[in-house]
Amino acid sequence: MVLQVERAVVAYDGRPILDGVSLSVRAGEVVAVLGANGSGKSTLVKAAMGLAPLVGGEVRLFGTPLKKFRGWHRIGYVPQRVGAGAGVPATVGEVVAEGRLARRGFLRPASAADRRAVADALEAVGLADRAREPVSVLSGGQQQRVLIARAVAGGPELLVLDEPTAGVDAVSQDLFAGCLRRFVAQGGTVVFVAHELGPLRPLITRAVVVNRGEIVHDGAPPADDDHVHPHAAAAHAALEVARPAGAGVWPPADGRAHAATGDARTVTAGVWPHATAV
Ligand SMILES: Nc1ncnc2c1ncn2[C@@H]1O[C@H](COP(=O)(O)OP(=O)(O)OP(=O)(O)O)[C@@H](O)[C@H]1O
Ligand SMILES: [Mg+2]
């Protein structure tokens, strides 16, 4: 088993966010983690990476309990958002080269294999010609692609991606889907969070739906994007009421709840796929 999360409980300030969640991922699977804003998708992924405080349950990576796990070079992780204004100005090439560090050690100089892996990863996300530019001059979607390239450059066996295609245009999404397809064809395992599957849908072997800190569906992927957010309309209504002042353009152009800044935990509507079975 590549990843095992067993009865994981995560709480912030005493407030339970994950409530005994279990998720096992085998080698070669491509698992999409779906659910409304604030449902706990990122928290689940962070718990699996040892980045969220686990107050109960257990996580195993490649069969090893998290505390004893040292094989981080086997995992490429892309967090949900690029932190704005990271102190040191790094170039695109440098950031992607960081993805090789766990593999080669901090003090050894980059080998030809390291440089080739970085070049290949940049090529795969369509940024080969931007390697020498500071990351800060890139657009948000391009920065996201830099992080994906960094995760891929390390030659991982497991890719964990939190909304890898959010804010990424259609052409880049296709590019990314191709990149993932090659990764999976070579035996890689993928867990990714998404609100819209788009060109990634054909790659998915399994979908997990998180709702209020619990997994409410684990199995067949949804047939189309309408079912990724089954209660988008209900969530939209709830968020509209809860809309913070100055939240920008509202409603979002595509009418989907995920574009909002609100928290949909208050939504009590039915849960996919049950809603679609009606
Ligand atoms: N570090 C933290 N401290 C306190 N609360 C947190 C923290 N991280 C997440 N939460 C809370 O946990 C809940 C789940 O958040 P999480 O980021 O996992 O949601 P999500 O499903 O990834 O949502 P989105 O689709 O918006 O990314 C939210 O209510 C959020 O406010
Ligand atoms: Mg998230």
From TrEMBL:
Pfam families: ABC_tran
Residue ranges the record marks as coiled coil: none
GO molecular function: ATP binding; ATP hydrolysis activity
InterPro entries referenced in this protein's UniProt entry, alphabetically: AAA+_ATPase, ABC_transporter-like_ATP-bd, ABC_transporter-like_CS, Metal_Ion_Import_ABC, P-loop_NTPase
Bilayer-crossing regions: none
Keyword presence, Nucleotide-binding: yes
Sorted UniProt keywords: ATP-binding, Nucleotide-binding, Transport
The keyword DNA repair appears for this protein: no
Domain ABC transporter residue range list: 3-237
PANTHER family documented for this protein: METAL TRANSPORT SYSTEM ATP-BINDING PROTEIN TM_0124-RELATED
Name of protein: ABC transporter domain-containing protein
Organism, scientific name: Dactylosporangium matsuzakiense
